[in-house]
Amino acid sequence: xxxxxxxxxxxxxxxxxxxxxxxxxxxxxxxxxxxxxxxxxxxxxxxxxxxxxxxxxxxxxxxxxxxxxxxxxxxxxxxxxxxxxxxxxxxxxxxxxxxxxxxxxxxxxxxxxxxxxxxxxxxxxxxxxxxxxxx
Length: 135
Description:
Structural class: mainly beta
């Protein structure tokens, strides 16, 4: 089980979760240890440039949507350094990053279903999953 699996479970359960991911794959959008808030998402509303919490090939990432295939109900996930993690189905997209250090992410709020409970900050002390595995 990876560092972000627990967060994904909580978000999939309908909670908005705050945590501090580690790693440099999303700089400058998210710097290591910045507080991020991830809320459940309606995957059909996702667009290129959204930051999502998604499972790709067995690993959970907090990465960018780099392409959308609405007909096949899937999105392509990539880091902010040009590395493509792969395609994943809407059922494996757990949430969308709605804020970084308290600053709202543009357009994210309109992609969140009816507001659910919020979970407090979670400091797992582990590096971001995408930082430990390079392809």
